[in-house]
Amino acid sequence: VLRRMNETGVLGHFIRSFGKIVSMMQFNMYHHYTVDEHLIRCIGFLQDIERGGVDELAMASDLMRKIRPEHRPVIYIAVLLHDIAKGRPEDHSIAGAKVARRLCPRLGFSPADTETVAWLIEEHLVMSTVAQSRDLSDRRTIENFAAVVQSVEQMKLLTILTTADIRGVGPGVWNGWKAQLLRTLYYETEPVLTGGFSEVNRAKRIAAAQAEFRQAFTDWPAEEIDAYVARHYPAYWLKVELPRKIRQARFIRASEQAGHKLAINVGFDEARGVTELTILAMDHPWLLSIIAGACASAGANIVDAQIYTTTDGRAVDTIAISREYDRDEDEGRRAKRIGEMIEQVLEGKLRLPEVVARRAAGRGKVRAFVVEPEVAINNQWSELYTVIEVSGLDRPGLLYELTTAISKLNLNIASAHVATFGERARDVFYVTDLLGAQINAPTRQAAIRSALLHLLSSDERAEQPAA
Fold first, then answer.
1. CATH code of the region 2-193
2. pLDDT digits (tens, 9 = 90+) for 321-357
3. Topology match between the domains 260-360 and 374-463
């Protein structure tokens, strides 16, 4: 790509413009680098993907070998330009696509390849958003994503770009869970784009994931492993990475053998700088809200969550919280306090609203970031559920407040997809009314939106400095 830019006389102009446009700080807690450094690092990770041999990039490496040869320069220039328009008033994905449509013909790209580069830049956030904040077992999610990517070739290119982009954000941002979600989204969508044909169909992928687990986990007799495998729904086998499956199997068995109704396992992810709490409990309509409230009461900020239910009614929830202490021993004691609080609430010995309110009274510092709150409600992302997407400034206790508010609005939360991008929280809830139906009435949707926006904006106002 660079050689072609030099031959066409565009390289010098591009370097000058590149420096003027994107050598800027990204003022948020998610991106670790300036825009230009991020783009250059992404090119480096794209080279790693092409070379192969890196386990955490294995899927992208496999797809890189399968894309059409003429698309190799396409993916390189798309990765180089995907954030080129950051800092402009217009949405940087749309503005970046316009830059690509002007620049690529000067580099000798054909009209078709130019349009592919522009499409990749315009849609470069879609796959990450869908993978992390949508129910990948919902048919409508897959159909909607397929309508965006349009072809398997474009999905391959977008998967490669998404992998390099997330990997290039900063240390600890890319992890096995995100890699597994991208893999699941890709293979769930492939049959839709091919009219039913897939290199690896869903049933075979479930069977392969279960076989991989059986081969790697030899601690138990075969019949016990078979019984355990049957306890988990297909989504669990497709979405959870192997090391976590093994840890959870050992944890669940030990907890049940000890006769614990509630058990918590504590793990530490040094790369991401988080403490992971895996909670095993009987499923409960308010369980997520109770867990979130206990974390808030302990001053623990939830940065993401994986929530699953077994076929026999046990909840297996993994919550990642920001570390407060350097020493694992101190973090372990904090996790134990959270577990004790969850147990006390479930037994009726503790009222969370009072505890959380006391904790919230200590807030009031001025925030460095302002994130405009957004609430989107629609019935197009699922055939069975109404999907509520909430985005706003993250804070301790936010997930508890949101889940409590949703429950008070007489809504059942079927699944929740919790993610944090620096200072921005983006939580998605799949809900129904108390009769299990979608929320269709415009007035009802307006009331839900108003209540959640009020929750988000009231905290924003409380955090602002006095005039």
1. 1.10.3210
2. 878 888 888 888 888 888 888 888 877 777 776 666 6
3. yes
